[in-house]
Amino acid sequence: MFTLVSLLCAPLLENALQEVKVVDETGAANSTELLIQAAFDINPDALTVVFQPAGDTPNLNAQAKINATLASIRSLPEVASIVTPAERPEYISSNGQTQYSVINLKSTSAEAIDQIEQIIDRDKVSASQNAEPTLKIYLTGKPAIDRAVQNYQQLYADPAQIPLPKVAAAFNQLTHRATTLVIVKSKTAQQSDATRNLVRDFRSANLEDLKIQVAGQTASELDVVAAIERRFPLVLGLIMVATFFAASCSVLRSVWP
Question: What domain of life does the native source organism fall in (predicted)?
């Protein structure tokens, strides 16, 4: 995922973010993209829908829900076919919990991917409203990531103006991790107030399942300022003690014969 996101996003986010890097802290063994490319032999350029259990409790109705979601996706006019584990048994993980299906589109359009995302979101909402054990369902592969990049391009050119909920939604589309480290570098002038505010906003943001680290010159400068502010009371105290000691010595010299 790190390589794929870096290669795809860095040049395409020209008008918004200079660079986006995603690091999976759980390790490469748990990287869905690596599983897709290696164990499941799925082309990373393919549009792939992934179904994973949402928790430790087995969902006895999971397959019925998966079939219903796939049926809804298959009914879309832009969908040519879907290759499921019924045709490719290797698309099921060794523990039988995770499975993948490759969606073949008649034309890779943003509208088609948006329609698929809407079906997935609808099924998630329905499951949560019925208090059912939910499945983690999401799209991956180059078409899905390209669409996430397009979402960025439709936002403001100045990254300081990007609404944080939009950023969170786009990162969630790219990562789908329980814990993810996201490094964002602003394209605006390093010394601008907009960039400083962007750094502060990202650091103070409470984004579910995401830990955000902002790197770069401005972030480092703010770290130095914060360190000085934290140490200022101690430094001020030392200065006052030193001043008092110097003044006391001066007084003693003047009165001591």
Answer: Bacteria
Tokens representing residue 193 in the block: 């107030």
How buried is 174 (Cβ within 10 angstroms: 0-12 exposed, 13-18 middle, 19+ buried)? Answer: buried
Q: Which residue has the higher pLDDT, 128 or 156?
A: 128
How far is C-alpha 117 from the chain's CA centre?
A: 17
Question: Rounded to two decimals, what is the model's pTM?
Answer: 0.49
Cα→Cα distances 39→35, 94, 100, 236, Å: 5, 10, 12, 61
Distance CA 58, CA 98 (A): 12
Angle at 122 between CA 121 and CA 127, to 5 degrees: 100
CA 47 to chain centre: 19
Q: Are 59 and 19 in contact (CB under 8 A)?
A: no
Residue with tokens 């680290």: 213
Residue 144 CA to residue 8 CA, distance in Å, equals 11
Lowest-pLDDT range of 167-181, 188-202, 217-231: 167-181
**Closest by alpha carbon to 83, among 32, 41, 48, 58?**
48
Is residue 37 within 8 Å of residue 102, measured between CB atoms?
A: no
Structure tokens at 11: 């040049």
What residue type is assigned to position 201 of the chain? D
Token pair in block for residue 132: 């059912």
Measured between alpha carbons, how far is 54 from 202 in angstroms, rounded to an integer? 27
The residue count of the chain comes to 257
CB half-sphere exposure, 230, CA atoms < 13 A: 6
Distance of CA 39 to the CA centre of its chain: 24
